[in-house]
């Protein structure tokens, strides 16, 4: 699973597609995951991408 901020959404989607060869599940971060940080820059994550 990749967590990303608004800035790194495209990069996270590209990385997920490259790894799996298919389009991943893309959703908004909610609940307990609200304190999760972006895998690319450390800012608060807004989206999660499940491969």
From TrEMBL:
Domain of life: Bacteria
InterPro entries (alphabetical): YyzF
NCBIfam families: CxxH_BA5709
The name this protein goes by in its record: CxxH/CxxC protein (TIGR04129 family)
Organism name: Sinobaca qinghaiensis
